Known about the structure:
The chain is α/β, with parallel strands linked by helices. The protein is built from 15 helices and 20 strands. 27% of the residues lie in helices and 17% in strands. It is globular.
Amino acid sequence: MELKLTLRNRCLTLSILVCSMQLAHAQSPVSRAGEFPNIVVIFVDDLGYADVRPFGQPRYSTPNIDRLAREGRAFTDFSVSSAVCSASRAALMTGCYHMRVGISGALFPNAKVGLSPDETTLAEVCRSRGYATACVGKWHLGDAAKFSPLEQGFDFFYGLPYSNDMWPLHPDVVKLPADAAERKARFPPLQLFLNNEVADPEVTAEDQARLTTDYTQRATQFIQEHCEQPFFLYFAHSMVHVPLFVAPANRDHTGLGLFADVMHEVDWSVGQILEALDAAKIADKTLVVFTSDNGPWLSYGEHAGSALPLREGKGTSFEGGVRVPTIIRWPGKVPAGTRCDEFAATIDLLPTIAKLIDAELPSQPIDGLDISTLLFADGPVESPHDCFYIYFGGQLQAVRDRRWKLMLPHKYQSLGGRAGGVGGSPVDYSQAELEMSLFDLKSDPAESRNVIGEHSSIVARLHADAGRAREMFGDQLTDAKGNSIRGPGKIE
Length: 492
């Protein structure tokens, strides 16, 4: 009971919590039994909350993702720390708010920064226990050699160094002449890597159409080759990030447009992973996590997914940007066909997996919490989070707890009710401005009713939590610098 009461100050006493988790992780029933699972994390790019059937998608079928939900647990309130590519991936890999490790936004080609090699990644945590490790798909944590997945704990890498739209055919620059300096400087040829070698020096549209298939073949091959030893597979899809591409055999498969076809292929890929685990007879020895890096890129309209009934999408701190569809399966351990409505986040995966495989936590402070009780409990349990910070572009934009979310005053991008683009071209966002707002996420996940005038004590508590966030990680809106930022790796 005394420990439970101290959780109210978790955000202030992080170092004490980390120490307590290090002592507690050996108490795991799973660890005592010696049943250390293989780990598969499937990370889809720009997948909206409502883009798969278990989370309300009504138009097209996702039978393999449905199977994951039938055989595992769907998490309906699962969040990323920022609704943009690199920041979200840095948080997943380190168990930290992205601000702590100095990665914000989306890193561009030839970026002078990346995830610091001094950080301990999820791959390194797994490798410390003798796991084989592989990264298949999109990396996006620095494209310089010193930031390669092979320098961050992975034994194998096959994929793109950043987003698949960062190429000379990006819609913002393709209209420029082929010899335009801006076009050449901003987006060099897109390269596909095999480990640290360039496997394809100039990825074409035809190559992109094969990406999901190629990724899947590499991922299933890794499973086949390492099924006799523990392994960690990080499968980070390039889809459904624009530009959308699908194998010719799957084009027009659904009759519902290109986005639905791409989702059909992503679902097929999930099925291939599950079949590979079944064929190797290790499904019951494998923890599978299916989730996304952020919500849908709504400005692309018919080439974007949906977060409905949540508000807004990628690039915002509303739930449509940061709440992602998440399913976790471990047959015989995670209760099948269940749902968890308690709050959890991608930063929690590292400490939770570390506990399950009896690994030491990173020596430096992290922010994620062990959510194993949310995975395995048969009955109601509470989230370990008393507060959670949401940053975008270096700005602290929201603070929440298990129920309430305080949105701080800021400007954000919005279509304002307009339709998005067609044919793969976006429309321009408008700039909207939000006043300080309080939302009850349990009764109003759509953030449609500001109840700030009705709950002054809750506002005061969350506002105090915001002050602690600024002390640790800074805030561009208030010029706070932060005293707990380790910073990114840099190219001298």
